[in-house]
Design brief:
By secondary structure, the chain is α+β, with helices and mostly antiparallel strands. It is 39% helix and 19% strand. The chain is globular and about 55 Å long.
Amino acid sequence: MTRQPSEDLIHPKAEKGIDAAKQKTQKHTSHDRRIMHVDMDAFFAAIEQRDNPQLRGKPVIVGGTKGQRGVVATCSYEARKFGVKSGMPLAEAERKCPNAAFLKTNGRKYTYTAIKLLDIFHRYSPIVEPVSIDEAYLDITGSIRQFGSDRKLAESLKNEVYNILQLTCSAGIAHNRIFAKLASGLEKPDGLTIINREEVAVKVFPLPVEKLWGVGDKTAETLHKLGITTIGKLAKYPLNILKNYFGINGEQLQKIARGEGATAVVSIKEREDEKSIGHEHTFSGDVLNINAVMQRLLILSQKVGRRLRSRGFGGTIITLKLRYSDFETHTHRETFPEIFWDDREIFEAGKVLFKQIYQKKRAVRLIGISVSRLFRIDFESEFPLHQVDLFSEPSRKKEILPVMDSLRDKYGENIISRCAANV
């Protein structure tokens, strides 16, 4: 793997001009905006291979040890050659690749690396929107002039990630988020793809419709029955027929194919005035294992609770979002008499909503939970009373939750967690 030699690990142009870049970006319209999507290559597995030379070049599966129940968090490219993929039950992964190294996840190490990664991203743009631990969008519109071109900027960022973290990433650049994300996946691993507006018909439209975000196996199967095999055909297909088959999601599918919809990258700082606080997760594959879905819901609930407490809020409305593998999406919300800010209570409310809307034996692609109708809470003196148990009794909350939050602040999101009960 070739990398530019550098005495200084940090590109000098990435150290300056960021404030100016932000001002320039704000002056640009969506027509000339440049968005970069950066996706780490087999992130967890790559970190394990980096830290253990004996694992390099060998199949590595992260998510649990052999014989353990659970799902694959991620796997190396060597394991993917055997048909292993994220979201697959560990037992199935072991059958497909019995000689792989099976490793438990190491949240503390992965989170530390992700923080370092964000530091690098912010040297190339002031507007960075992380969407998961291993991927982020960057608005590089105002930063390009510092490097001469968007390609040179991306190459510099990729080199810096490798020089500092000894990891590779794939980048995609386009005039909107949808095509930037599509581009980042076209030349994995260690790829760089740029799609200019005038190149969409040549670079995007001939691609298989499965390449689009949001098009799972069942959606693709239905599209194929309609003769829609490429992104271009989907972009031009009669909308009334799409609506007949997919409902309101038919219009959304066509917008995605055309690269229409939300374009702006929203930085963390710009989200301070949210009227609701929530998190959602898109599984890398269709998930039928409901326990795996509940584990993810618990993690999302913990993130929501932590953000609520860090901002001094509680809320009375819980909303659950559920998307199936065929892109059909449902949301259900309920207003409660009590104020939610505790992880476990958010999770339990989410489980109730899940049971109300989940259709059995359907594969899940996305799960999300949010808290709205927010109220300011003084956590030093106000502790709304709830049903008493080990973790919800007021005095115990006052002791336990701040400790859990401080541990996650210091060592990462996965350093401590509650156990998810079966549905």
